[in-house]
Amino acid sequence: MHTTSPLQVSATPTGPTRIQTEINDAIGTITLDHPSKRNALSEQMVQEIIQALHQFKAQGVRVTVIRAAPGARVWSAGHDVSELPEGGQDPLSWQDSLRTVIREVELFPGPVVALIEGGVWGGACELVFACDMVIATPEATFAATPAKLGVPYNVTGLLTFLNVAPPHIAKEMLFTGSPMSAARLERQGVINAVVPSEHITAHVFDMARTIAHNAPLAVGVMKEQLRILSSANAVSANDFERIQSLRRVVYNSHDYAEGIQAFKQKRPPHYQGD
């Protein structure tokens, strides 16, 4: 058995590391570890995840598992809303930290498995659905919340949902923002399995070892082919410009600014439809 000591992820001037990492038997584990912020996907946490994925690739990791600490009540609260612009600027541009980490997960040469305990909120849903496989406990829930904040989701984010969920399920998640149970998503084929919390770690790492023992080049090439095929639906230049124009109306609106401010002020938003 080949085991390495935990990787060292560099701390930033804003504080200590937000994740823990280790490699065992060509399986890399990233543990989200910022419970005081409910593992919100802040710029710092995202950069640490990206750094860990780069280190995993350099060290020949064949499978990556992303998880929260065992027994966590919240896997991740999604975007750190305090870092979102309050208006007049696209909150989910190509350079956005969430977009960046999702691309890194999709482009990582080996499968990435999400081990889910607790609630998955907002942008964290997209991060989870961008993973190659998702295993959750019965208590896990998934809530896509952009409509609650007045955030206009972008095309690539919507495609992430449509690549894993039937359209009516994706619409229910996105339009209502209400939590959806792991059991229901398993029945719809959105997640792979629901496993009791006392067995989920063993289940996920048994699966990871099975994958790691297979031919890594074949697995990696199949992953890349599937990624390309999943995004093969072309959008015309006119349609793309129209989508961007529609999104611009939203993030320049009163409702968008109200949603962000209400969240920060911990009060219900008052949307006016303008």
Description:
- The structure is a single chain.
- The chain is of the alpha/beta class.
- The chain has one domain (19-197, 215-230): 2-enoyl-CoA Hydratase, Chain A, domain 1.
- 45% of the residues lie in helices and 15% in strands.
- It is built from eleven helices and ten strands.
- The protein has a six-stranded mixed sheet with strand order 1-2-3-5-7-10, sandwiched between helices. Strands 4-6-8-9 form a four-stranded mixed sheet.
- Helix 1 (43-58) packs parallel to helix 2 and helix 2 (97-107) runs parallel beside helix 3 (123-130).
- The longest helix has 16 residues, at 43-58.
- It is globular, with a radius of gyration of 18 Å.
- The termini are far apart.
